[in-house]
Write the structure tokens for this entry.
Amino acid sequence: MLAKNVNENACLLNECGACEFFASKLAPTSLPGASMTLRQPCPPGACVCNREQLLQAPGADLRILQLTRQQEKILLERLENLKSLQDLEHLQQRMYDQLGIRVHIAPGHTEVKSMRGIQIVIDELPGMCRKTRQSIPASIRRGLEKNPEIAYRLLDAHDLFRDV
């Protein structure tokens, strides 16, 4: 009987004060038959995320719809306050694991003179809001500008000195 009570309250366990890291807030425990908290739909005509088609598709990956506006703000803030290249890579993996967002970050094909020379590409993902698709790369760039050492490590990881 005690295990049943714990399982019924499992969704409340994520609300601890120590969980400042966005990833712990993005993947709430859901019980069979319980409804997920989904992002509110965008105003008609403002977005081309195909949210309704995604909801109607049987067996569709709905993880991206769990990114509410509040959680998106937490994610963007976290991306703007990167600490290291490993931190960035960890966030990339967490975004994929929890939301299905695949972010590719690499030096551009031409010379990298500023943070704009670093390419940040997000794979197509049905249900991803246009605003979110634009905000994630912008936040990563701001994070790289705040901590240029991360950009240098990124360039080194992609063989910065290959032509020397």
Remarks:
- The chain is about 45% helix and 5% strand.
- Residues 46-157 form one domain.
